[in-house]
Amino acid sequence: MKLFGLPDNSDNQGDQDPRWTSDQPVLSLRGVTREFPGTPPVHALGATNLDVRAGEYLAVAGPSGSGKSTLLNQLGLLDRPTAGEYWLRGVPTATAPEQVRTTLRAQRIGFVFQAFHLMPHRSVLDNVLLATLYSGTPRGERRDRALRALDRVGLSHRVEFMPPNLSGGERQRVAIARAVVTIPDVLLADEPTGNLDSTSSSGVMDLFDELHHDGLTLVVITHDPTVAARAGRRVHITDGYLREVA
Amino acid sequence: MRLQRRLHPDRSRRADHFRLRDAFAEATAGVGARTGRLLLTVLGTVLGIAAVVVTVGLAQTGANRINERFDAVAARHASAEPATREDAWGQSRALAELPRDAPERALRIAGVRAAATVSKVDIGDATITAVSVHDPSAPTRAVPTVMATSADLLEAVGGHLAQGRYFDCGHDGRGDRVAVLGVDAAERLGIGGVATLPSVFIDDHPYQVIGILDATDRRTALLSSVIIPQGTAEADFGLVAPQAMEMLIEVGSGPVVNDQLATSLAPTNPQTIKVATPGRPSAVQQAIQSELVVVFLALGGVALLIGGVGIANVTLLSVMERSGEIGLRRALGARRRDVAVQFVIESVIVGTLGGLIGAALGVAVVAAVSFVRQWTPILDLRMVIGAAAAGALVGLLAGLYPATRAARMEPVAALRAGL
User: Which residues, in sequence order, are CB contacts of B145 under 8 Å at separation 6+?
Assistant: First the structure.
């Protein structure tokens, strides 16, 4: 995969489980459940099996409270499962040390949030550079990569802007640039168009299409059927259980 | 471990993971983003550090002020003379002689401003009169003493002439018969002024009176003496060597003079020279001062503590407020340690800023107070640097707890807070 002409992480030989080959799923969940303790305990995610292959564009749709965010937190290594195992590119993560999960998160996963999560006091460029600080990107390459990522999302002219001075669509593009600047294996988007008007939404979705076309693996979580419709593969989640739609 | 190696076999990749340089850059940006708050946060430390610097600075200045008053004269005078020992007949005998060039040697020592030798001249049974006529019927009068000094005596003993001038090194070198009269001796000899070019006769030799000494800080015996040049005393009365040396020195140079003068005057046998230099402030005076300083320091410490609590408070608030940012950083792959280090550095930056500004402010206040009161401001440079460093330390300590809180945040919960 070549995103804006930069070599991706898979070029680092041995940076993955040797049992993993590119025809195997990038993400693989087996019996992953998540319960939140309490009285009574909340079963947010039932035993979930899910495989996502390299280059797939997956939409996870479902109503509020159906467990979408819980699933995203599992996929993004932000939260550990109560039971089950999750392999990210062949690496078992459920009980892996925090350090391993943090490294995987920095290098293999890109996040796009509904509320953009841009730092308001830092320039657009700084916001994109933030991801490179933790991913181990060589210092000399950081700026160049960030500029190319911003160019890829069509924001070359906004590099020195502050996020509050950008439109909603532009802010989400900055967030997407930040997510892809580390050339992750998978981009996880949580309601990426939830805060956008329809024009901006379709702009962001077009950008996702292009990134997918470039070879990026995408998992988009949404309750919006039109957004879900853009994905090549759709699953529906209700009460914590996944169902394949198309 | 095997897993870990598989994850990042190429160490250089991890080597560029969030290093101290990055942490510092992020912390600086974090601090700089909220200028208004930064100023308020810094204020606590500024006041604390400034309070310490001002109290200690004024204590030092004030202490010096006490010294100045008590020791204005004593602090600037030193003297040297040969050590003595009692011989078998109970007479004290000098162990050495001062060299003829003792004043020149003394002046080479840092802090010595003026030096002059002083010796009592033994004139035997000779008489001293103001007229050359020998009058056997005249009543016997107490004979004034005759002293011999080198040229720079006035400055060395803080003397003042009522009239005329003091002799110079020309008179001294040539052995000219000139004399300066102490004001009491002049009165006793019936000499009212130098305008009439009077002379005194010592053993029938005339000595022209060129000046009258009316006051001196030290060696008040000079006021009742006839003072002649050292060289003249050597030529006329067989004076062998100077008996003592008086010196005017800079305040505070006493220890240096004490260390070096004896060696300079008697290089082979320094213990034969007795040097007297201004003593240290008395023990009582020192005790009072150190107690004052302790009280002042305690007050400053309390102020500093309050400043530190202020920083801790604001940093903690900032951690709560920025939980979204912390969640974002964790989602982007920041380790707990990375987050903690960043917040500690932010707090240290705030503390250091407070320390620097506070130290500067404190110095300015001490200088201003001294200026108004016309004191000499005394500030230990080490204390000023230490005060700035103390600010950094306060920042470090104040930042530890909030940073731990920041590091402990779970990314999911933190992200929910939003930015």
Answer: B120, B121, B221, B224, B225, B226
